Amino acid sequence: MALPKLSLDAPILAQEKMADAVYRMTVHCPGIAAQAQPGSFVQIRLLGGDILLRRPLGIADADAEKGTITFIYRILGKGTSAFSNLCTDDKVNVLGPLGHGFSQNFKKPLIVGGGMGLSPLLFYAKAMGKKADVLMGGKTASEMFWAKLFEPHVSKAYITTDDGSLGTKGFTVSLLPELLEEGSYDAVIVCGPEIMMRKTAELAREAGISCQVSLEKRMACGLGACLSCSIDATDGTRRKVCKDGPVFWAEEVF
Fold first, then answer.
1. Beta bridge partners of 11
2. Of 128, 171, 207, 236, which is most buried, counting CB atoms within 10 Å of its CB?
3. What separation, in Å, do the N-terminal and C-terminal C-alpha atoms of the chain show?
């Protein structure tokens, strides 16, 4: 049975700058926090002003006991820029939780993420309780504040940077074949740039390992009504990222 979607005016408990143009926001909305699953997302609407459409944000953490959910987001346009100007005790309207999350039935998954795709993967790492390893990548060391966030929740962390300023020099997928061969993983969980996810899915398939991907598309309603996030699935059908995803088995979409 599908859980009810809630729309709540949620007070902001904390807003912190994590890196250049990247912020972490925590809001208090107990009903949504209690239902949130790793991989699910919410739609955020500013109260007042001239920004009418909601913005989708992946859930980086949810604490049912405290009634809080946390997002890590990058300023990409007018909406997210307005989010970054909000302060403690300001309110936003939160609709969710939305979408389907990652499977938590694996014994030893490898989490693979790049850029802001690491945000929903952080929630997954926490939920798996150190069963997972993580392979994460970014352009430079300054972008890899993620390492400290993941450290308490994973068994091992592997880091790549394009310029070699932290971890292994190169792209994230460059290290992946070696890890898949040696790591005894039963699944790969991935979110990030599409080109990275496609290559990760290909390598997982070649290794005979299950793979789940989290897609990102522009969306307005988040409920499957506006069709703005529709995609072509591999079986010839049309899927809605907001309602049928955002998490899919890799072979469904790639």
1. 91
2. 128
3. 28
Alpha carbon distance 133, 94 (integer Å): 31
The model's pTM is: 0.94
- Cβ 108 vs Cβ 132: under 8 Å: yes
* Cβ atoms of 158 and 138 closer than 8 Å: no
Task: Say how far apart CA 27 and CA 199 lie, in whole Å.
Answer: 35
Instruction: State the DSSP H helix or E strand holding residue 159, giving kind and residue range, or none if neither.
Output: strand 157-161
Give the CA diameter of the chain: 53
Within 8 A by CB and 6+ apart from 94, the residues are 6, 7, 8, 9, 10, 27, 29, 32, 42, 43, 44, 69
Q: Which of 137, 120, 139, 136 is nearest to 128 (CA)?
A: 120
Inter-CA distances, 13 with 16, 27, 51, 200, 228, Å: 10, 5, 22, 36, 32
DSSP code of residue 234: T
| Domains of the chain (ranges, CATH numbers) | 6-98 (2.40.30.10), 109-253 (3.40.50.80)
**Which tens digits make up the pLDDT trace of 44-60?**
999 987 888 899 999 99
